[in-house]
Amino acid sequence: MTKKVTTKTIRSWKGSDHKITSLTAYDATFGKLVDSAGIDVVLVGDSAGNVFAGHDTTIPMTMDQMIYHVSSVRRGVSRALLVADMPFGSYQSSDEKGMENAIRFMKEAGAEAVKLEGGKRITGLVKKLTESGIPVMGHLGLTPQSINEFGGYHTQATSEITAERLIDDAQALQHAGVFSLVLEKIPAALAKKVTETISIPTIGIGAGPACDGQVLVIYDMLGLYDEIEPKFLRRYANLADDVRSALGRYIDDVQSGDFPNEDESY
After folding, report:
1. Range in 26-40, 87-101, 214-228 with the lowest mean pLDDT
2. pTM, whole model, 2 decimals?
3. Which of 117, 164, 184, 196 is labelled catalytic?
4. Would residue 184 show up in a list of annotated catalytic residues for this protein?
5. Which of 68, 128, 143, 259 has the smallest number of Cβ neighbours within 10 A?
């Protein structure tokens, strides 16, 4: 059996020939498929709010909903590192609330790390979590929980000032103890600079090829969620078309009386 991936493993791949692979999952079935394929990091993202629950943003997702998704994925994952997304409202109001909710993910859902969005403003919480034995993955650039502040899903850190601010945030998060850092929808040159500046692995999504790894939303890369087409997305399948075709054949077979046939009856 392939060796279990831990936060120590992820750190060891910094700057190595091994590019970290990460995908989201929201249920046990996809968790098992992703894990058995050899993906390194399974992220139970609050993107479930979009692709699973049908919301326009990730903001409506609650702790109880995320606990359900993480615990479901946990039952399908054995090798990959399982990371839980801390949803909006679960840590912004106080470090104490953030600690309480992160502990819930570890105790109730079996998460092995949590992911937080934000820079210097969350370093106090990051330090408290890591000192308590809860590994933290950071997230900078386009942070979906701040979508109302950004005014849309635009590329972030495109000016010299905002780019320097992002680098400062990355260094602050590293100093606070994060074991890795997601960089979302920022210029490739900036992602390369961040990756070369910090000693923890970077995992990109719309941040170019220089990061130490890449992450995508599984419903996007499989073509199941086809309502958006961001530039950074590569679709490795078009399963929505396959599903629609299968559904159409099922309807036809039922209507014609072909299903179930004699071999499919008791």
Report:
1. 214-228
2. 0.95
3. 184
4. yes
5. 259
